[in-house]
Write a structure and sequence with these properties.
single chain; mainly alpha; Na+/H+ antiporter like fold; two-stranded antiparallel sheet; 19 helices; 2 strands; 70% helix; 3% strand
Length: 468
Amino acid sequence: MVEMHDKPEDKTVQGNQADETRPGVHHAPWERPFRKVITPFEEFIKNQTTSGVILMVCLVIALLIANSPLAGIYHQIVSMPIALTAGDFVLEKSLHHWVNEGLMALFFFVVGLEIKRAILVGELSSFRKAALPIVAALGGMIVPALLYYWMNPEGSAARGWGIPMATDIAFAIGVLVLLGSRIPRSLVMFLVALAIADDLGAVLIIALFYTEQIALGYLASALALLVVLIVFNLGGIRHPVPYFIIALLLWLMLLKSGVHASIAGVLGAFTVPARFKYDTLQFSRHMRELMERFDASQRPDMDIRTNEAQRIVLRTLERNIELVDTPLQRLEHLYHLPVALLVIPIFALTNAGVPIAFDTVWAALHHPVTLGVTIGLVLGKFLGISGSCWLALKLNIGQLPEHTEFRHIAGVSLLGGIGFTMSLFIAELAFAGHAEQLLMAKLGILCASLVAGVLGYAWLLLTTRRAA
């Protein structure tokens, strides 16, 4: 029997609702009815399945538009040139490139923050926690790449070996959450850790293997800017603005150097401080002192708008709240929703518009690139993740997550074949200038993600029971 307890956030919501009815709480004329309308939506967008749902909707929209009479307008908009100019400096890219090389840098920034947090204090912070997910991620990258390369060993098609190596965390977690109480929470954490390790591998692959010719002057400038960011970190600078300015210059230098500019997001994230200024005990003592000053400054004839002493205390409270938290976790919290709800959907809309000629779709599905991506993601991920986990457990490397069995790992291995966002991103890099192969790769990614999602859901639905 599983006991149900109030989650911390539930208690917070209950406390907030109680605060609404207490004396001294003031409301705007339409605030209460508006809150009744907006609160369910706020709760919805904070749900961890939301980004996967929005991503699926954008995928369907892009596919429908690309296979409708609006296809010509869609491709004109995606290829529309947009230029930034400052004096003699001109930086011109198509909308498609601005999304993939500019906007996606913010996605990689959040990925970098998640990786750093996971290594320092999260799912990858100890050997016991990290061993099995890291082994699973390695197996889930190596086997799909080998299967793809076995099917496409020559020519430009061989460059696509990195495409089936990535797992889309939003879709995979979304499928797990749909299964509800059948899935132990520890399995979700295992998949998160696996996906974070997988993202780190994908970032390294992009940096090492999917770059153009290197312009050493720009690369040296990028390294110098990275040193500046490290100096900021070591010097105790915690405000995000200096990091943002230098990271923007770093992005520009990497864009000019030939190394894919999205790597600037990861490098910038790794330099964001992960230290807190005050420990919790010091913070608590200081807050009590400030609240005593706040109460002592209370005047019957003044409210907060005219009581300058209380306003000074409030500003001090605000600064100290920032100092007890880490800049890394603040920024991760700040950017996670915008990236999930804006950046990734825009990426999907501009990259998932695959024109499907239904009279030739059977031939397209038999194209070596399509087959390589599909088999790599569906079969390769399953064999790589489950096989490496089985071997690691036999060698006593790591341990199964709490309350899970190997059938759960098999289900996660199937879900690992959902390789949407990062796979599409690598496909754009691998087949730049090869339109037909890029189209076949995208078709393979879509087919594999659908098959892997359905198989993983069905397997876990049939092999697990709903908790009482």
